[in-house]
Design goal:
disordered C terminus, 139 residues, single chain, 0% strand
């Protein structure tokens, strides 16, 4: 929220620290320390080339993690399933490139909208899903 607000058309009406102070209680769960100078320590956004695009990078990482999670769902131990996932990624994502809207291509590939779970798992912020145990037939 901070980066979008900071680089919006309204940025001239509010100083960067006032903006941080206003947004803090809406998005963060801990109280702000008086010595906190958050915007100045978020150098990727304040002085680097990221600017308001910082979170678009995070969004692309989420999409990549979600696409990669298709391999987990298919089962790494099954080479045929892995090959099918790879072929589907090639046909629906890599072949079309940016000739079609990303959301449309993603839905075609995964059959649903993007989900942040795979990214959260890859960042260690969520427990890894345990693969379902296969029960042997007792015939």
């Amino acid at each position: 929220a901070y980066d979008i607000s900071f680089y919006s058309s309204e940025y001239e009406k509010e100083q960067y620290q006032s903006l941080a102070d206003r947004l803090w209680p809406q998005y963060l769960v801990i109280e702000k320390d008086d010595d906190n100078s958050f915007p100045l320590h978020f150098s990727d956004m304040m002085i680097d080339s990221w600017c308001a695009g910082y979170y678009s990078n995070l969004w692309s990482r989420m999409l990549a993690a979600d696409v990669f999670s298709a391999y987990w769902e298919a089962g790494w131990e099954n080479p045929e399933a892995v090959r099918k996932v790879s072929q589907k990624i090639l046909n629906s994502l890599l072949t079309v490139g940016s000739s079609r809207p990303t959301a449309e291509v993603f839905r075609e590939l995964r059959g649903r909208d993007p989900n942040p779970d795979a990214l959260l798992i890859s960042l260690g912020l969520k427990k890894v899903r345990s693969p379902k145990k296969r029960v042997a037939n007792k015939e």
